Amino acid sequence: MRPALALLLGVLPLAGGAGAGELLVGTAVSLREPMTKVARLYEAEHPATRVRVSLGASNILAVQIRAGAPLDVFVSADEELVDGLQADGLVAARFALVRNRLVVIEAGDAEFHLEGPEDLARPEVRYIAIPEYAVPVGRYAREWLRTRGLLERLRERIVPTEHARATLAAVDYGHADAAIVYATDARVARSAIVAFAVAEEEQPRIVYAAARVSSTPAAREFMAFLRGSTALRAFEAAGFAAPGPAVAEPGP
Amino acid sequence: MNWGELLSITALTLRVGAVATAALLVPSLALGYLLARHEFRAKSVVQAVIALPMVIPPVAVGLGLLILLGRRGPLGGLWSGLGVEVVFTWWAAAVAAAVVGFPLLVRACEQSFAEVDVRFEQVSRSLGHGPFGTFLRVTLPLARRGVMYGTLLAFTRALGEFGATTLVAGILPGRTETLALGIYSRVQLGDDMGALALCGASFLIALAAMLVGEGWLRRGVAPPGSPMSRR
Predict the structure, then answer these.
(1) Three-state DSSP string of B147-198
(2) Residue A7 CA neighbour count, 13 Å, CB half
C-alpha cells in the first residue's frame, strides 16, 4: 500500500488550483475557436494572466453563475440570459459583442439534398438536431421554425442536443440527418455541409453579449480587450459580424 | 489535446479521488466497526440510508449537494460568509466523489470487521489493551485486506464520478475538469481524439488500480505473525 499512497500524495500538489493571475471566461461554445484565440492574444499582451476558457451552452453557464461559479467574464450567445443575470445583480457591466446567423446543415454523404425549409418535412429526414428551447441556438432555431409554421410538423423528428457544437457533431457523425446551427459553426464542420442559409428577412436577431461577473482588475481589463479591435478581428475572421450600431449598450 | 492538458486533467482526477478517499477513511472505519459489532434498533434503517448514495441517481446526489453547498444553501451560506466557496471548485468534486464512494467503503469495512473473530478482541482486552488499542492492533490488521480493497473501490469510484460532480463542480477547464467530465465535454464538442485520449488515461489508471487490488487479494495482505497470515 505504501508505494500507492506515495504515488497519490505525490500527485496532490501537481494540479494547480485557481491561481491569483487566472481569469475564467465562461464562453458560449459557438465561440470556441475565436475565443480561444482571443485568450491567447490577451495572454501575449498580459503575460502575468492566464485565461481559461470554459465552454458550454450559455444557459448552463448562466445557471453556474447563479449557483456561484467563480467565472470572471461570461460571453453569452443571447442577450436575454445576461438581462436576467443583470436583473439579479450578478452582472456588473455588459456590452453587445458580435452577431451571428442561422444556417441549415445536412450530412455531407446524404442521398438527398435539402433545398429549402419545406424540405425538412420530407420523410427521408428522420432526425433533426436542435437544442432545447433554453439553449440560445435552440430558441433561435425553434423561433424560426415556428415563423415558418414548421415547428409542430417537425416536432417528432427533433433530437435535442446539448449545445451548438453538439448539434453540429450530431450531423458530422451521422447521428442526425440535418440540423439548424450558426453559420459560424458550419464553417468548422468536418463532414456536414450547408444545405441552405435561413433567409435574410427570416433571420432571428442573434446578438452575443459579453458580461463582467467579477470585479477584479483582470476581468475589467479583459472586457476592454474584448471590446477592442484585436478581438473583433479574431471574431470576424471566424465569421461573426460586428454588433452594429442598432444595439443598445447599457453603461459599464 | 496536448500532453500538458492530459497530465493536468489526470493529476486533478487523482487528487480529487485521493482527497475524497482520505476524507472517507476514518468515518467509514468508525461506522463500519459500529455496524459490525453493535446491534441497535434502527440498524437496518441506518444501513439503508448509508447505501442510498450508491443506488440513487448520482445526478440526484449532485442536486442535493448543490442545494446544501450552494451560496444560498445552509452549509454554503455559512462557508461563503467565511469567504470560502466550495461549489464549482475541485473541493466540490471531491465532496461529490466522497459522498458517492462512502457506501462502498462503509460496507467493505463493516463486512471485513464482521469477519474478525470476536475472541481475538476479547483476548486482546484480557491482556490489557483498551478498546481503541485492540481495534488498532488486532481488529484493523485482521480486517486489513477487505478495508484496503474497499478503499481502492471507493477511490476508483471517485475517479469516475460524473453525475453528481457535473452539477456541483461544473466542467471548468483546469479547475474542476476531471477525466470523466473532460471525456463528456469533448464528445459534446465533437473532439473525439481528445475524448479517446482521456478514455485511455482513465483505462490505464483503472487497470493499474484493479491490478494492485487483485494483488492484495491474492497475496493476502495480513501482516506476518497475525492469525490470518496462516491462510
Answers:
(1) HHHHHHHHHHHHHCCCHHHHHHHCCCCCCCCCHHHHHHHHHHHCCHHHHHHH
(2) 11
Which chain B residues have a beta carbon less than 8 Å from that of A53?
Answer: 173
Beta bridge partners of A27: A55, A75
The DSSP secondary structure of A237-248, one letter per residue, reads HTT-B---TTS-
Q: Cα–Cα distance between B168 and B86 in angstroms, integer?
A: 9
Residue pair B201/B179 in contact (Cβ under 8 Å)? The answer is yes
Q: What is the pTM of this model?
A: 0.82
Does B188 touch chain A if contact means CB atoms closer than 8 Å? yes
Secondary structure element (H or E) that encloses residue A218, with its range: helix A217-227
Measured torsion, CA atoms of residues B73, B78, B80, B83, in degrees rounded to the nearest 10: -170
Cβ atoms of A184 and A154 closer than 8 Å? no
Question: Using a CB-CB distance cutoff of 8 angstroms, which residues of chain A are in contact with residue B4?
Answer: none
ipTM over 0.90: no
Instruction: Give B188-230 pLDDT, tens digit per residue.
Output: 888 999 999 999 999 999 999 999 988 887 776 545 445 554 4
